[in-house]
Amino acid sequence: IDSVDFSFSEQHGLYGEPRIFPAYVTLYGADSVLASPCELQVAHTVIDGISQSSTYVLPLAPVWKQIGDVRTTAKNVEVYVPVEAYVEREYTAPVEVIGADSTVRMRVYPDVVKVRVWVAKRDLERAPEFRVAIDYADVLAGKERMSPRLIQFPSWVRPRSVEPSEVHCVIIK
Q1: What is the dihedral of CA 129, 135, 136, 139, to 10 degrees?
Q2: What is the pTM of this model?
Q3: d(Cα 42, Cα 75) in Å, to the nearest integer?
Q4: Tens of pLDDT along 43-82?
Q5: Residue 169 host element (H or E)
Q6: Which string of b and e fits 57-72 if b means at least 16 CB within 10 Å?
Q7: How many CA atoms lie within 13 A of 32 on its CB side?
Q8: Cα-based angle 152, 140, 153 (whole degrees, multiple of 5)
């Protein structure tokens, strides 16, 4: 389904894995004809404004017609796209220093950042855990400003931003 462009309406997005039926399509024909490389794809399709879970019937590009006397078990596939409405939420997370020497004391300013994410409405009661970090190697290299990176987050959230976009780290001797 690489040739299908899915786009969602405002505040909606994919929730889970799309499912394709049939999962396999078999081509039948003479061995000599089937020996040539052939890749089945869905015909180029654009689906805009998706706002609810739906099944789409998509035609296969008929490449088998170009290689000779070949038949297929399917001319279309069904793609189920699970969709949920999302809302933006803001959480706080401490900033870690990855790879830090345990004998060194340091302070990160600010030591807590805001993580903005989209959360599916059905998951609003869940408590996400985030890990935000900077690299100790950057501290040792003398970088004054470092960008905190979101290194771990639950699969059911969609990260939007980490604020502030820069933090400072001071080694205490």
Answers
A1: -120
A2: 0.73
A3: 9
A4: 999 999 999 999 999 999 888 777 778 888 999 999 999 9
A5: strand 168-172
A6: ebebeeebeeeeebeb
A7: 2
A8: 5
